[in-house]
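Recall the central idea of this unit: under ordinary conditions, the amino acid sequence of a chain determines the structure it adopts. In this exercise we apply that idea directly, starting from the sequence alone.
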Amino acid sequence: MDSPSSLLKYSYKSALAWCQEHGWTDLFVEQYQYWAFPPGGVMPLPLPSQALHLIELPTVTSPQQRCLQMLSLAIALVATGMSCWCQSLMPLLVGFSACALLIAAQDA
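Accordingly, the structure predicted from this sequence is:
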């Protein structure tokens, strides 16, 4: 079972940095959302979604992810070519399945 932090769109460090910058305290995760006490508040609130959208997500992919992406692209192209050559949809089905497994392997 995935931990709640792995299902969140933004990293804990990014949310913590936003909280420190804006004066929010005691950051925690509840119901797959970040919650904290706003400045002067006595009750925790979910972090504003507009503010979280401004957090830049890391766009750097690891070498392993790039390799898997290139492999899935190659498999898709070969499956498309084989499907045209064989005049059958079976190579596309096999290629789609292989690409789905590679994409799932990136999340692991």
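Residues 32 and 65 are 25 Å apart (CA to CA).
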